[in-house]
Amino acid sequence: MQKLLLLGDEAIAQGAIDAGLSGIYAYPGTPSTEILEYVERNQEAKQKGVKYQWAANEKTAVEMAMGMSYAGKRSMACMKHVGLNVAADPFMNSTITGANGGFIVVVADDPSMHSSQNEQDSRFYGKFAMMPIFEPSSQQEAYDLVHYAYNLSEKYSIPVMFRITTRLAHSRAGVMRRKTKDQNEFKLPANLRQYVLLPSFARQRYSELLEKQDDLEKESVSSGVNQYHDAADKSLGIIACGLAYNYLLENFEDQVVPHPVLKLSQYPVPTKLVKTLYDECDEILVLEDGYPLVEELLKGLLDHGKKVKGRLDGTIPRQGELNSNIVAQSLNIDEKFGSEIPGIMVNRPPSFCPGCSHIDSYVALNEALTGYSEGRIMSDIGCYTLAALPPFQTINSCVDMGASITMAKGLADAGEVPAVAVIGDSTFTHSGITGLLDAVNDNSPITVLILDNETTGMTGGQPSAALGKIEKICMGVGVEEDHIRVLTPLKKYHEENVKAIKEELEYKGVSVIIPRRECIQTIGSKLKAKAAQKEAENKTSVESHIN
Amino acid sequence: MKKDIILAGVGGQGILSIATVLGYIAVKKELNLKQSEVHGMSQRGGDVSSHLRISDKTIASDLIPKGKADMIISVEPLESLRYLPWLSADGWIIVNETPFKNVPNYPDVDKIHELIKSQPQHILLDAENLAKKAGTIRSANMVILGASSPFLSFEDELYEEAMNAIFGKKGEAIVQKNIKAFYSGKEIASQSILQ
Question: What predicted TM-score, i.e. pTM, was given to this entire model?
Answer without folding.
Answer: 0.96
